[in-house]
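Hello again, I could really use a second opinion on something today. Take your time with it, there's no hurry, and the full record follows here:

___
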Amino acid sequence: AQLRPTAETRLDVAGRKVLERLNELLGRGISPDVDGVTLLAPEGVYAFSCDTEALYAPREPLELEVWAGDEVAVRLVPLYPRADAWSVAVESRSVTLGWPGLERSTYRLYRVAPGGESLVYEGDERRYTDTGLGVGATVVYRLETLDPRGELVAASLVQAETLPPVAELAAKAALTGDLTVQLVWVLGKGAADRVRVVRLEDGGDRTVAELEAAPRGEWVDGPFLPGERSQELKYRVETWVAGDQHPSAAAEAVAEVPPRVLRVTAVGESIDHGVMVVGWETLPREGLAEGYAVYRQRAEGTLGQLMGRVRDPFAREFEYPVEDALEASGWRHFVVPYLGDRMLFDPEWLQLDSNPPDRGFEKRARSGFLPPDLGLSWDPYPGARTYLVVVGGREDVVDKPYVEINGLQNNLASSENPLEVFALERDGTRVPLVRLQVEYLHYPRSREDKAVRP
C-alpha cells in the first residue's frame, strides 16, 4: 500500500521522514493479526492506494484525513478467489458461477450490475446459477467470504456476459425423393428463442413454420409436383429473440424443382444373375415424375403387364427377379411416368400393338386351345386410347375395350378379388369404368362337377 500527501497537505522535514518510513513499511507488506495493525501518520490529507491484484480494494486511491487524536479505520481483505479461479458458464439468460471456498466459511453473492446492487445468494454452497437475465447482458458479481463470526475475510469481483443474439446462420434446401423440400440450418453461437421459416413467393412472403430454436434444425415442405417448367423455391430462415422487433440473423436457401417428364425416350434391358434390369431415359433428361410404372410387353391381347412401380422421381432403373433367364432375354418393356393418378401415357410414341384375338372361343376350342381365365369387354369410353385392367394383383394395359387374361388361378384363390377397369384420358387422368367382384370356385374334377362351371 501507499500513502501520498495531497496538494493541501504541508509536511515539515520530520513529517516527510515519517511518511517515507511508513511507505517503506507498507511497500514491504504487512501481515496483521485478526485485530489488525495500528499505524501512526502525520496530520494531513492523503491518497491511500493498495495492490488491487492481492486486495479487495477500489482501483482509485481512497482519500483519508488524519488529524491529531483521530483514528481512521481501513479494513483490507484479500482478493479471493482470483479471477482465473472462478468457474463461469453462460447461457442466453443465465450465468452459473463456481468458486473455490475457504474452510468453515459462508458466502454472500451480490449482483452489482446491471440494475443496481442486490443480494442474489447467501449460504455455504460454492456454486450458484443466476437466471432471468437479459440476452447479451454484462453482469458483475461481488462475492464476500465470511468467517464463522460473520466477519468479512475475503472478497472478489467477477464479470460475465450472457450469450448475445445469434448473429449468423447457414441454411440449405434440397429436393428429396418424395418431392418434398428438406430445409436444414445451423445456428452460429449465440442466443435465439425461436426460428421462423419463410417461403418467398411472388405474391408475398409466407411463414410456413415457427419452431423452438436449437443449434441445428430442419423443416420439410411440400410435396411439390413438377410442372411444365422448372420451379425455384426460395426460403428464408430467421432467428428471433423474444421481445425483439427484428430477427437477429437470417439466411436464404433455394431448391429447384425440375420440369415434369414429357415422355420416356428409350428403354433398355439386361439380365444379371437372375435379375432383370430395366433402364430408361426421359425427355427432358433432368425431368421428374412422381414415379414410374414398368410394363412388360405381351402378345396375348394386351399392350403390357405391370411388373412394378418405382416411387422415386429421380429413378432411371428398375429390377425384378426372373426364373428363366433365356426366356426373359427376349422380353421387352415400356415405362410410363405418373403424377398422382395421372399417367403420362401416349401409345403413339410407345408404338405398341396389342394383337387382339381374331377368333372366338368356340373356334379356338375346336383347334385345341383352351379359353382364357378371364375374358371381359366393356363399352368404349369417348376419347380414351388406352385402358387399365386391374385384377388378382395384376395390371394390364390394353388399347381396345376388351381383354383376355391368363394365369389367374392362384391369384384369385382368395375370398375377395375386385376387378377394375379404368380409361386413360389424353392428359393421363384415370377414369373408373367398371368394378366387379370376381369369385374363384374350383375347376371340375369329376363327371358330375363338369356341369358346374367356375
Remarks:
- Residues 50 and 225 are 77 Å apart (CA to CA).
